C-alpha cells in the first residue's frame, strides 16, 4: 500500500469536522457539570484538547483494525466475516478472522489491542470475551486448526503479560486449538510461516505510522472559537430539537456552560434564531 493511501485512510478516520464537534457538544450537554464545576482549574481549551487527543487514540485503534485487515488481503489471507454467532441472541465481533492457506485448514482469530495497559477488572473481561469467541469457533469449525491470538501492537506496554500467559497455560485445550500471546512484530513473524512477506508488511505498517506521526508533530491543533466560528454553528445545527432546547435553557450548569464554552457569543444567538425558525410553531 502506498503511503499516500495509508495517510488518506487515516486522515479520513480521525478528521476533525463539524460532526466531531457535534458529538463533542452532545457530550457537554449530557454532563455539563464536568466542564462547569468550580473545582476544575484547567481552562476549557485544555479539556477540548484532551477530548480531541482521546478521540483520536480511540479512532486510531479502530483504524488499525481496518487497515490490518486490508494488509492481510495483500498477503492473500482470506478474511471472513468478523461476526460470529454465539447463540440466537448474541453475536460476537472478532478483530481479525481469516484463513491463511488456500485449502482453508488453518483459521486465525486475533484479539487486537493497541496496548497491554488495562487494569485487572478489564483484562478479565477481555479474556472472557476472547475465550467465548474461541469456543464458538471450535463448534463452528470442528475440523479446522484454530490459532487464537491475543495481540498487542505497542511492545512498550506489557502490564498483564503474566496474566495472559497463565490463562493460556490453564486453558482447557482440545485437538487442533492453539492459543498464543504476541506483542508487536511477533505476530507477523508467526504469520511469516504462511507468507514470507508478512514481516515486510509489518515494517511497512510501522514505517507508515511513524511517518504519519512525524508529520503530525509539526502541526498545532487549533481549537475553534465556540462563540464565533462557523464550523461550530454548523455543528450546533446538527443537534436535535431537545438538545438545542437544553443548550438554550436556564439551569445553573447550562448558563455556566454557555458562558464558559461559548462565551455567550454570536453562535448562541444564531442557534436561538435557528431554533425559532425550525422548531417553534
TrEMBL record:
Enzyme class: hydrolase
Domain of life: Bacteria
InterPro entries assigned to the protein according to its UniProt record, in alphabetical order: HpyAIV-type_restriction_enz, Restrct_endonuc_II_HinfI
EC assignment: 3.1.21.4
Statement: the UniProt record of this protein carries the keyword NAD: no
Assigned keywords, A-Z: Endonuclease, Hydrolase, Nuclease, Restriction system
The keyword Nuclease belongs to this UniProt entry's keyword annotation: yes
GO molecular function ontology, one term from the record: endonuclease activity
Reactions that this protein is recorded to catalyse: Endonucleolytic cleavage of DNA to give specific double-stranded fragments with terminal 5'-phosphates
Name of protein: type II site-specific deoxyribonuclease
Source species: Mesoplasma florum (Acholeplasma florum)
Lineage: Bacteria, Bacillati, Mycoplasmatota, Mollicutes, Entomoplasmatales
Amino acid at each position: 500500500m502506498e503511503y499516500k493511501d495509508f495517510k488518506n485512510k487515516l486522515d479520513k478516520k480521525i478528521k476533525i469536522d463539524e460532526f466531531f464537534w457535534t458529538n463533542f457538544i452532545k457530550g457537554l450537554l449530557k454532563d455539563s457539570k464536568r466542564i462547569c464545576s468550580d473545582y476544575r482549574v484547567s481552562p476549557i481549551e485544555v479539556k477540548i484538547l484532551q477530548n480531541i487527543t482521546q478521540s483520536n487514540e480511540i479512532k486510531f485503534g479502530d483504524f488499525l483494525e481496518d487497515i490490518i485487515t486490508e494488509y492481510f488481503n495483500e498477503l492473500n489471507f482470506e478474511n471472513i466475516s468478523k461476526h460470529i454467532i454465539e447463540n440466537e441472541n448474541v453475536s460476537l465481533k472478532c478483530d481479525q478472522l481469516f484463513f491463511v492457506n488456500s485449502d482453508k485448514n488453518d483459521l486465525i482469530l486475533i484479539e487486537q489491542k493497541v496496548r497491554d495497559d488495562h487494569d485487572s477488572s478489564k483484562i478479565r473481561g477481555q479474556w472472557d470475551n476472547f475465550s467465548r469467541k474461541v469456543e464458538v469457533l471450535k463448534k463452528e469449525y470442528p475440523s479446522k486448526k484454530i490459532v487464537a491470538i491475543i495481540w498487542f501492537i505497542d511492545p512498550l506496554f506489557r502490564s498483564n503479560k503474566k496474566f495472559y500467559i497463565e490463562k493460556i497455560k490453564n486453558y482447557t485445550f482440545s485437538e487442533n486449538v492453539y492459543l498464543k500471546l504476541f506483542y508487536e512484530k511477533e505476530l507477523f513473524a508467526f504469520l511469516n510461516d504462511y507468507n514470507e512477506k508478512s514481516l515486510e508488511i509489518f515494517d511497512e505498517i510501522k514505517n507508515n505510522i511513524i511517518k504519519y506521526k512525524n508529520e503530525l508533530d509539526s502541526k498545532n491543533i487549533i481549537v475553534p472559537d465556540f462563540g464565533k466560528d462557523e464550523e461550530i454553528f454548523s455543528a450546533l445545527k446538527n443537534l436535535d430539537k431537545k438538545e438545542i432546547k437544553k443548550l438554550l435553557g436556564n439551569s445553573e450548569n447550562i448558563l455556566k456552560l454557555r458562558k464558559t464554552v461559548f462565551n455567550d457569543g454570536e453562535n448562541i444567538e444564531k442557534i436561538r434564531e435557528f431554533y425559532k425558525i425550525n422548531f417553534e410553531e
